Amino acid sequence: MKSLEQLNTERSQHQAALHELEQQITQWEVHLEDPDFAESPNGQSLKIPLQEARSKVDNVEYKISVIDQEIAWFDRKANSSALMADYKETMSNWATDKADLEGKRRVLNTRLAETKSQSEKLIADARQAEEEAARAYAQAVAWSDDEGEKKAADDAQKAAKALSSAMEHQRRQGLLITAMEQEIETIDAHIKEAADEVLKAERSAVVIALERLEEQWDASVKKLLDLGAKLYAAKRYMGREQMAFHRFYVGSQLESFKSWEESDLAGMSYRYSPAEIIDINIPSLDPLVESF
After folding, report:
1. What is the dihedral of CA 268, 269, 273, 275, to 10 degrees?
2. 265-273: which pairs have CB atoms within 8 A and are 24 or more residues apart?
3. Is 272 exposed, middle or buried (0-12, 13-18, 19+ CB in 10 A)?
4. Whether the Cβ atoms of residue 245 and residue 262 lie closer than 8 Å to each other
5. What distance in Å separates the CA atoms of residue 214 and residue 241, rounded to the nearest whole number?
6. What is the per-residue pLDDT for 286?
7. pLDDT at 55
8. Which of these, 221, 238, 225, 220, lies nearest to 278 by C-alpha position?
9. pLDDT for 284
């Protein structure tokens, strides 16, 4: 993996090359703006290096973008602790907002359901009262009950007024219901926004963790390789190296095409002499003895 200094140097070189190419392209394009020159043999031949230069510009810009990504890796590494703290705080804040919004939505949804139910019940009761008054009136007429007829007529008139009032109340309630439904839609949009922001911060935090874990992996692999090389040296000393690390393979997480196999361990093992093999920290067995 290249150092930050190497990346900055390469970026400066590419930037200088890009500037030079762009200047050359501008000069050629000025010449080609002349229709007579553009159609001349010299103009036609100039179009070939112009196209090549434009292709080189695309290539250099791509290289710069790749370098910028690698430089950003170093920036994130240098600020990992602060970035991780910011992302965690962002996640916590948005999660709190989301929970608060969900609470408001539950309250509003409950009130909406109650309002719809009450409005429907009020209309149903008023219609039932009107129907009952009409039946009572019909029965009174049928039985020539003048007093009952008069009472039923009054009841029917009251029921009609109650139904009219209920319908007006339903109209007003309909406005409230529509407003509450619209507010729920607005809250749902804010809940989605909060969930998206939590996910966005979480993903950014995972990127930081992933990059640091990749570093830790490679550091651990290097320690393992050192241990494996010493073990290989010991096996070779005893004449047991032929199948010592059969099918051994481990890859780097920082360098895409970097990996180590048995042959690498074999080569590294020659660093260790018998004296260095013997110089090993052997853990005390006393705690194990005491446990028995």
Report:
1. 110
2. 265/225, 265/228, 265/229, 265/232, 266/232, 266/236, 266/241, 268/225, 268/226, 268/228, 268/229, 268/232, 269/229, 269/230, 269/232, 269/233, 269/236, 269/241, 270/233, 271/229, 271/233, 272/229, 272/230, 272/233
3. buried
4. yes
5. 31
6. 55
7. 94
8. 238
9. 63
Q: At what angle do helices 41-78 and 4-32 cross, to 10 degrees?
A: 160
CA distance 86 to 74: 18
Specify the pLDDT at position 37.
87
**What is the structure's pLDDT at 214?**
95
CB 137 within 8 A of CB 209: no
Burial class (CB in 10 A: 0-12, 13-18, 19+), 265: buried
No. of helices (H) and no. of strands (E), the chain? 8, 2
Residue whose pair of structure tokens reads 């009841």 in the numeric block: 155
pTM for this predicted structure: 0.70
- At CB < 8 A and 24+ separation, what contacts does 56-65 make? 56/21, 57/18, 57/21, 57/22, 57/25, 60/14, 60/17, 60/18, 60/21, 61/18, 63/14, 64/11, 64/14, 64/15, 64/18
In this prediction, residue 36 carries a pLDDT of 83
Helix (H, G, I), strand (E, B) or coil at 36: helix
In the prediction, which pLDDT does 96 show? 97
Amino acid residing at 19: H
pLDDT the model gives residue 269? 94
What residues of the chain score a pLDDT lower than 50?
A: 288-290, 292
Cβ–Cβ under 8 Å, residues 32 and 24: no
Eight-state DSSP code of residue 143: T
State the maximum Cα–Cα separation within the chain, in Å, rounded to a whole number: 128
Q: How far apart are CA 232 and CA 210, in angstroms?
A: 32
**Structure token digits, residue 223:** 């320690």
